[in-house]
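To: structure subgroup
Subject: Chain for Friday's discussion

All,

I'm putting the inputs and outputs inline so they're searchable in the archive.
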Amino acid sequence: MQDELDLGSSTTLVALLRHRAATRPEQVVYTFLDRGEIESARLTYGKFDERARAIGAHLRSVAKPAARALLLFPPGLDFVEAFFGCLYGGLIAVPAYPPDPSRLNRSLPRLLSMANDAETTVVLTTSQILPMAQGLFPLAPELSKMTWIATDAVKDDEAANWVDPEATWDTLTFLQYTSGSTAEPKGVMVTHGNLLHNQQMICTAFDQDPSDVVVSWLPLYHDMGLIGQVMQPIYVGGSAYLMSPLTFLKRPLRWLQAITKYRATTATGPNFAYDLCVRKITDEQRDSLDLSSWQHALNGAEPVRAQTIERFVEFFAPCGFRREAFYPCYGLAENTLVVTGKKASAQPAQLDVDAKALERHEIRVPQMGADRNRLVGSGVSPVKEQQVLIVDPESFTPLTDGNVGEIWIHGPSVAQGYWRRPQETKETFEAEVSGGTQAGKQFLRTGDLGFMQRGELFVTGRLKDVIIVRGQNYYPQDVEWAAEGAHPALRPGSSAAFAIEHDGKELVALVAEVDKKFSNGARDELAPREIADAVRAAVMKKTGLYLHALALIKAGSIGKTSSGKIQRRPTRELFRKGELELLGAHITVAENGPAIDELADLGGTMGDLSAYLPERPAERSARA
């Protein structure tokens, strides 16, 4: 397939875009859909190259080569021009998202953390955002010391001053700051070579060609949106229609309407996106859609939910959506993007396993009457030089098929490490297996758990998210799935389960979003006790765990990464510190059941967990 794409002699993204501009200058590569419907901006390959040269030349006049440039843009084509302007100017891009004025206490610290870690000296934005951004200077004086440039004000005629930065396969292109699902964001160092190799993997996995059409609402500053939806059309010589994430969240129908209108072949979303479409789109609206052109409905969640596939396929089959179009895959920023993907035109692989055995990290066929989990395969490595191993995370010994361990990766798509974090780079990117034919080879430790079965990768969860109760392992997503199906008040794909220590014991807690129709009225209408009873019963039946704490929060407020993954550890910290804004909560303390039960109306914030767990008898006596 790659030989058919007319890549010329491109060894960098700069060379590739220049080649596309020379061979197909009038072809439209990007169209931005305002509100998901109005074609408000377009870029041809020729104009794209001109804007990148103009911005690149301007940047070379104000910044040193390899300087880091923070990109603060709203959804739109200005971001795309600025990102490639950095590549053309020899700067290292640091994609970010403008801080939300209504949530500065959360969004501004993360932005400053990224800027300080990357030591950015330049900030790129738009003429519209620049005055608003300057209003942040009193809160963040370090931002005022940087050079701010509104790229939409850069004149096209500056393109004549452009000088090729002479980048190579090994030149650093941008820092992809991890989305923070498990820890503080770290800057993943991605080169031209990493990107082009990963583009080859994506192209091979999807069997793409220049006729491929992308429709995307994914954030452009995140790897799945930037690499999968912006760079990939350039690699194959195709086109993309982009819209704001808010457009999709407010009305998911617009995403599917755009797929219908533009006969899209590729469109991507995490579990919650497909679930949201099923929940929010009516039968009548569905009947107006034609999804028969959709060949790759990508889902890179960890893990992909079998229930999500079944619900989406069943609901949208009448408008032409095919089961084989559902495309589970696996990837992460540290491997640039994609690691594995389903074989083109094949059905998504599914496997029923014994739920209790899985808690012991064993894969067994469930016997009659036994609890079972249905796992979805994330595909195979598309190219031979990209290797995936399952490794015991303690002994570093490779495991055979059917054994759960940590997913390790070796190959040209593996990024160069974390920006200026040599120790963490060594621990994560330079791991070596113990003995065998792979000894001496460096692997990326993903922190994800999974197993191989007949060449197919099955992702089971995060190594550090596993809940350990009385020495036994439990996957948090099993608790979340059971809870979300127990009561209609809980929103699918919007809860976080975790363990928290109290009085020397591991207790299981769940933070869950409440659907808007249940939270619009008075708090006493929410009935936390009723929800808790239903959820606890479902969790106990599914996992054998007793849920000690249930915290209910409003829709849209749980922590998620930009790619839709639940931020369990940050949510746990908010729970522990008492910084959740609650609609209601129900907490018990008995280790094996509700021996003592207390309904807490917490008046908006949780406070320290110990203050809301029933006291031990000795504490009651002392206070009395």
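Points worth raising on Friday:
The radius of gyration is 25 Å.
Residues 591-624 have pLDDT under 50 and may be disordered.

D.
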